[in-house]
Write a structure and sequence with these properties.
This protein has 636 residues and is α/β, with parallel strands linked by helices. It contains 27 helices and 15 strands.
């Protein structure tokens, strides 16, 4: 029995799609059970808003909670904040606090806390200082005690010194989840940081999660005591998106999977990028909807006039209302259950990789029309089984196989669609099927909490953008799909039109790769257009599919059927690869819900084809007739 390679590919990928869908069942169940998000803000901001509004803090917090606020964050006060009076203590250098009556044996610039008997939080402060700074000295002085830290005042200005006991006191009788933000303090060992943190966790039962503050994690590089403490207490650590904090990676890996994802926008970014409050609302909604972020850390604006309580409550209400309409509940989220890749998902990935490798090799060698026998099918099954076993046991083999599969899937999807110029609809749908079936296999294998929480990076995204255009170009030059061979192109003088196209393709490829995953270089008009599509379609199609990939495919169908521009048609073939690279890459966003990905792929398909049809109509009915008339005038 002989089977056509094209039919073997479709049969193999149909099996892959079934296996991938089966392997995705645990992931989909986890996504549905964890469809919860929390809006969190800094408790200090709530206190400031209450003071501004002239109402009790509890009332301000109650109004914000009625609008969707879920939790608050309480941090450690820095030396600069203690100097500004955020706690009712005297803080400064020994020389300033002594006021000319310097105790013996002390450095005049040492940081110190002066406590009188019975002053607010004095017992808590004394115990915390003894835990976090065991080298401190308690010196009786003028009716109180001078607690001298083993640090200079200058070293403490940006370091976490004391918990914000005033805020904890305000929350004492309020049942609300709290995020604790321990500050980094240079020179303090990890064991001392853990001892001090244990004191806070014991006395403040509302703490649900920890988000270290500062440029490095408190206790770095000795973070094992801190991670051990959090594991024992069942406290999660919040993984801040795009954070470059030193040491946070160790803490996250050691506590995995007790991790909650968190999105925030720094004030510096808001000011430098000119983000409006509407922009921020859209950004937080997008973070939860597209990337499954669980904690949305939003802070009120300092730039707008009027009641900040009213404005901030309105923003919380808009975010929570939008998310609830999307099926995301507001509440305190749970961490993802630990789940590993199963044999079904591994078989789906391995079979897809073997079938696509065979097909790509046949295309490049000119044997794509040859039929294959039962022996070849058996060899494919055996190799796929062995490869699946290797992928389950060797992480490097799994990552390399996944990256190669993503690139080959986008390549074969492009070939399949481009070959369908005689029956365009069938060609497009066949290409999408190849990309989606392979994407399901990738999503099933790599869609574990490890990748969903971005603990590990998937290396297939860049390869998917670069390899398919290269393979298409090499194939077309070798097989004379482009009317000239590579040797003839290189042996003759270049045509100006070709140089312009090559320059444009190189610039476009660089832009696509550079912008992939980099939102800092997206122009404002495109951001507004994306937001409009998100509101209209829920799952926004990717820009590469709407404006480049599918339109290039439609234009290829058009010029190929009209048999025009033989030397310049290659640009449309290469451009079309972006559509299918984008589809495969959508499945490589493992933090995004799989049903959302499928909706995004569908929306990208019909919007991209619609944009391509409009471009083709303009070409056929406006540009080409105008070009012919212009040529007639010149000839006449």
């Amino acid at each position: 029995m002989r089977i056509r390679q094209g039919n073997l590919l479709l049969i193999g990928l149909a099996i892959v799609a079934v296996l991938g869908a089966a392997g995705l069942i645990p992931r989909i169940a986890a996504e549905r059970s964890n469809g919860v998000a929390a809006i969190v803000t800094d408790m200090r901001d709530v206190a400031n808003i209450a003071r501004e509004s002239g109402i009790p803090v509890s009332q301000a917090l109650g109004e914000l909670r009625s609008k969707g606020l879920t939790g608050v964050a309480v941090g450690e006060l820095t030396g600069q904040e203690l100097l500004s009076g955020m706690l009712p203590v005297e803080y400064g250098s020994v020389e300033n606090l002594a006021r000319g009556d310097m105790p013996e044996g002390l450095w005049p610039d040492s940081a110190a806390i002066f406590l009188k008997p019975g002053s607010p939080y004095s017992k808590d402060i004394e115990l915390f200082v003894s835990r976090k700074f065991p080298g401190s000295r308690a010196v009786p002085f003028k009716g109180g005690t001078l607690h001298v830290l083993p640090l200079s005042l200058g070293e403490t200005l940006e370091s976490g010194i004391l918990p914000d006991y005033l805020l904890f006191e305000l929350l004492r009788d309020i049942d609300i989840p709290v995020i604790y933000r321990p500050g980094a303090t240079p020179g303090v060992p990890g064991e001392d940081v853990a001892n001090a943190m244990a004191l806070v966790l014991d006395s403040k039962p509302g703490i649900r999660s920890v988000v270290p503050a500062g440029f490095f994690v408190a206790g770095y590089p000795e973070l094992e005591p801190v991670s051990r403490l959090l594991r024992e207490r069942g406290i999660t650590v919040a993984k801040v998106e795009f954070s470059q904090q030193i040491g946070i990676g160790f803490l996250e890996r050691d506590l995995f999977p007790k991790i909650l994802s968190l999105h925030s926008v720094r004030r510096e970014e808001i000011l430098s990028s000119g983000l409006t409050r509407d922009d921020l609302v859209e950004r937080f909604v997008r973070a939860s909807r597209e990337r499954s972020v669980q904690l949305l850390y939003i802070r009120p604006s300092d730039l707008l006039s009027g009641s900040r309580l009213e404005r901030f409550g309105d923003e919380c209400g808009r975010i929570s209302g939008r998310l609830e309409k999307l099926g995301i509940k507001m509440g305190w989220p749970d961490t993802l259950p630990l789940r590993r890749t199963g044999i079904v998902s591994a078989l789906a990935c391995a079979l897809a990789l073997v079938v696509l490798s065979l097909r790509t090799g046949s295309r490049m060698s000119g044997r794509e029309e040859e039929n294959v026998g039962l022996k070849t099918v058996l060899v494919i099954i055996v190799i796929a089984g062995v490869l699946a076993a290797v992928m389950l046991r060797v992480s490097l083999a799994a990552r390399l196989s996944g990256a190669l599969l993503a690139a080959l899937a986008a390549t074969e999807a492009s070939f399949t669609a481009l070959e369908g110029h005689r029956r365009p609809i069938r060609g497009v749908l066949s290409g999408v099927f190849v990309a989606v079936a392979s994407g399901l296999a990738i999503a099933a294998f790599f869609g574990t909490p490890w990748y969903m929480l971005r603990m590990g990076s998937f290396s297939g995204v860049k390869a998917t953008l670069l390899l398919p255009p290269l393979l298409i170009l090499i194939h077309d030059l070798k097989k004379r799909v482009h009317p000239e061979s590579l040797a003839s192109v290189l042996s003759r003088p270049p045509i100006w039109g070709e140089l312009a196209i090559i320059g444009g393709l190189v610039a476009a490829a660089g832009l696509v790769v550079f912008r992939s995953g980099n939102v800092s270089f997206v122009p404002g008009w495109e951001i507004r257009f994306r937001e409009l599509l998100e509101q209209l379609l829920i799952a926004r199609p990717r820009t590469k599919e709407i404006f480049v990939g599918y339109p290039a495919l439609v234009l290829w169908f058009t010029v190929r059927r009209m048999d025009i521009w033989p030397k310049y048609r290659e640009v449309f073939r290469i451009g079309a690869t972006l559509a299918f690279s984008s589809v495969v890459n959508s499945f490589c966003h493992f933090h995004t819900h799989i049903l959302f990905i499928l909706l995004r792929v569908f929306n990208g398909l019909w919007t991209g084809l619609l944009a391509g049809a409009v471009m083709a109509a303009i070409l056929v009915f406006l540009l080409l007739p105008a070009w012919r008339r212009w040529q007639g005038v010149i000839a006449g």
